[in-house]
Amino acid sequence: MTLTVHRAASTAALADGLAELLCDPLDDPFATEVVAVPAKGVERWLAQRLSHRLGAGPGRDDGICAGVRFLNPHSLVALVLGIERDDPWHPEQLAWPVLRALDASVTEGWAHTLATHLGHGVAGIEGELRRGRRYAVARRLAGLFSDYALQRPGMIADWRTGGQGDGLDGQVAADLSWQPHLWRLVLQQVGGEPPDVRLDRVVAALSADTHDAGDLDLPGRLSLFGHTRIARSEMAVIGALSEHQEVHLWLPQSSPAAWDRLRNSASQGPVRRRDDDSGVIVQHSLLASLGRDARELQRTLALAPDREENALGARDT
């Protein structure tokens, strides 16, 4: 199997391509097609668009979009990881262990910035106001740690083993050097399998085809439609799935010409934004200023080297 990337400047062309794919039924007549979308609005539009093709008679557009299960990328990955209902690393649940870690760390030397912000040792009304921030700060940090696990799993893996890396072969900034220490305290509070270890375990099992596919409730064909960003951890799961089943990415790209110009640069994979010269390579001021998501997505796709590309309705732009 392989990962097939379909791209077009028109989402209508992508929807028509997806409809053509879905018109070819799965081997199991009772199986439900799975299509991951980035937002509910995209789901509604796509379902309406597909209803003009699926089940319609010759020359008619009176069909119905049935037998299609819409997910978002997070729920698809959660389904694969087995965390769709209870994930200790979800921000809402993680906020409380982070709060306990904050309370336990304010006397540590490395936590001076946190202690000052939270009013540790500050008397009077000012101290009370700052200490009243505790839960809000914990919830904010829980969201950040969850995003780190999603976007830079290598960074928190380095932190877990005592490092201070930023996930891109560098070190975290000096004013953020307290974050790795706090993360290690949070790991102790939560216990169990860290998110980076869980991701590596499941991706390895998917690649080796030893993951219990019966628990996934997924058909032999998956589609992801309309995404402008895909997180690194999501890409790892998608790439592993594509090794043993059919996976299609339907990506809107405003400029096929820019995609081709960036092909060599994007093949290097994700880089720091300050080192990213793709805005210059596209040779178009509007694409350079507004097309960063598309350019970074192209770099993220380099993490799944075994892929095919299919340009739908390509034109010079």
Overview of this structure, please?
This protein has helices at 11-22, 40-51, 73-81, 91-105, 112-117, 124-131, 134-151, 153-160, 178-190, 195-207, 232-242, 256-261, 263-266, 278-281, 285-290, 292-301, and strands spanning 3-8, 33-36, 68-71, 221-225, 246-252, 307-311. The chain is an alpha/beta fold and 317 residues long. A six-stranded parallel beta sheet has the order 3-2-4-5-1-6, sandwiched between helices. Helix 4 packs across helix 7 and helix 10 (195-207) runs parallel beside helix 11. The longest helix has 18 residues, at 134-151. The radius of gyration is 23 Å and the shape is globular.
Our count of helices gives: 16
Q: Helical percent range?
A: 40-55%
Beta-strand residue fraction: 5-15%
Query: How many DSSP E strands?
Result: 6
Gyration radius from CA atoms, angstroms = 23 Å
The average pLDDT score comes to 88
Head-to-tail CA distance between termini: 32 Å
Largest sheet features: 6 strands, parallel
What structural class results from the helix and strand content?
alpha/beta
Pattern of helices and strands? EHEHEHHHHHHHHEHEHHHHHE
Shape: globular
Unreliable stretches covering 5 or more consecutive residues: none
Strand line-up across the major sheet: 3-2-4-5-1-6
